Amino acid sequence: MSALRRSVVALSVAALALGSLSACSAGTPDPAPVADDLAAAINSGDFGKVQFASSDAAAAAKAQKTAFGPMGDIKHQSTVSAVAEDEEETDGVKTATADITTVWDVDDSDKDLSYTTKAVWEFDKDAEAWKLRFDPSVLAPELEDGGYLKASYQAADRGSITAAGGKKIVTNRPVIRVGIDKTHTDKANWEKSATKLAKLVDIDEEQYAKTVLAAGDKAWVQAIVLRDDSTREVTDAQIHAIEGATYQEDEIPLAPTRSFARPLLGSVGEATEEIIKKSEGKIKSGDQVGMSGLQSAYNDTLSGTDGIVVSRYTKDNEAQGELFTAEPVAGKDVETTLDMDLQQSADELLEDADSNSAIVAIRPSDGSVLAAASGPVDSGLNTALQGAYAPGSSFKVISALSMLREGSTPDSKVQCPATTVVDGKTFKNYDGYPAAKLGTIPLSEAIAQSCNTVFVNQGAEIGGKKLAEAAAALGLTGEDGTGIGSVLGSVPDDSEGTTQAANMIGQGVVQASPLGMATVAASVQAKSTVQPKLVVSPEPKAPAKPASELTEKEAGQLATMMGEVIDHGTLKDLNSLSGSKIIGKSGTAEYDSERNAHAWAIVAQGDLAVAAFVEDGDGGAQSAGPLVKAMLQAAAK
């Protein structure tokens, strides 16, 4: 129960006991009902039920609107705390006085603004009615004609988003707000200057010119906010060369660079009408709030509580005194597991990507997400954590686990024909599959060379349920524990026929995110099922353990086969890297009749697992392979 409602309940109880708080003499009616009518009028602004000895309902309503309007959406409740007929008459006129207590629910704390005013009625013998001697001080203590109460806010310092160990990622950084000051140039230049400035900062010229012209004659109209650091390409001289163009220095929460984990971290901006409405009074016009990503998901944590001062003002806008003060409470930091160097490396690799792409790096030993980059940076999509695509042959690690659980080993002999048919549908190996690796080969070689037909032919025997269990054991279909609403993957347990056959090679109806496939590689490297984590404070709800978990023996067998992918298989370009053993798997998933394909590569080395994805690629090894190689090299520096 809010403090306001508690106050209202308490005061309502007092109102019920008015028999002990009110009194009237013989021949005059009880003043309690008219006091209640006044309290109701102060609450609603409708004084139609109030009779006046001075003023009238319209004037009182105007005074109430003037007095309380600047308080905005802050709710108030007025109640009668005491009422009684005065013992002595004034100039032969009987009077009654009431105490009106008004409570303002100023913020979310238990601290409210509460004050008591006095209202006086005189008894009109002819009308046999109590009539109010209205004065603005009935509304608030010492309030004068034309006076008002106003709430002023002091923005709380926004919390930062930090990397592992508390190193700040998003924090206040210098910017310049570039715009046109209409008072700095003649009216004849406004449109021309606006168009020139819009062209300089690369925004819509026509729209900005319209905005400038529509603003007041003395307005300063912002065009854009630019980082004020070494990356700023628009110079002071270029801005000042345009008549009326100027800039204001400011600081806003920003990441180290424009591209740094941009879709993951999100942005901060002025609250929209929709956000304000959904907040149910917590957010007001002009507030800076998280608009997307972590900034939005953890806005309540990061934003803190604004300070507020309620003051009484005269009609000439002079402050007379503070009635309520609450200091701002700074927001709290949101700590992530990100490694800033690895994230920067991943961002740079994808910043200007030709199609939607992603790189995710995980520390297998504890599931920490060290990097989650999505490209190109201007797409705004969080492909790394929320994209869902057919994983292609990278999924064969899961299919291989399902076969190991049915008794196969890396040395088991399997048949790899050039083509195979399931329920009338023909499946074949990828173009360029080495002919020398057809026929009878070890299961490990089927993984190394990525033979499709081996796994397609095992689909019916494995079945949907066992394939789904293998996916769960490798962390692909677990509950999200990142704290940011991530997608891992989906593997239906009831697929049959050609759908199940296609599922075995990562097509059909199975889907995975780059995070999900990085988790698969991490689970193999960790020798147990990994559950990725990203936000560590405030701590999100822990995900449930999967029903099927990876064993150390199973992980060892998978690692052996994935090691051959690097040694002499589809990712052999990585075997030139120094350091500990590398394991991996590439994948290509055609997604239309023109054979356009998603490209995948997953690898692990030491305590690092990486997945790379390119939506429109030439092949897993060709398009995604260089990305995972670059990440391993970056980690080794």
Automatic annotation (TrEMBL):
Superkingdom of the organism of origin: Bacteria
Signal peptide: 1-25
Keyword annotations: Membrane, Signal
Family to which this protein belongs: Belongs to the transpeptidase family.
InterPro entries, sorted: Beta-lactam/transpept (IPR050515), Beta-lactam/transpept-like (IPR012338), PBP_dimer (IPR005311), PBP_dimer_sf (IPR036138), PCN-bd_Tpept (IPR001460)
Residue span, Penicillin-binding protein dimerisation domain: 155-317
GO MF annotations in UniProt: penicillin binding; peptidoglycan L,D-transpeptidase activity
GO BP term, example: cell wall organization
PANTHER family, per the entry: PENICILLIN-BINDING PROTEIN 4B, PEPTIDOGLYCAN D,D-TRANSPEPTIDASE
Protein name: Penicillin-binding protein
Keyword Lipid biosynthesis (UniProt): no
Record flagged with keyword Translocase: no
Annotated localization: Membrane
Chief localization: membrane
Span of domain Penicillin-binding protein transpeptidase: 358-632
Protein's organism: Glutamicibacter mishrai
GO CC, one annotated term: plasma membrane
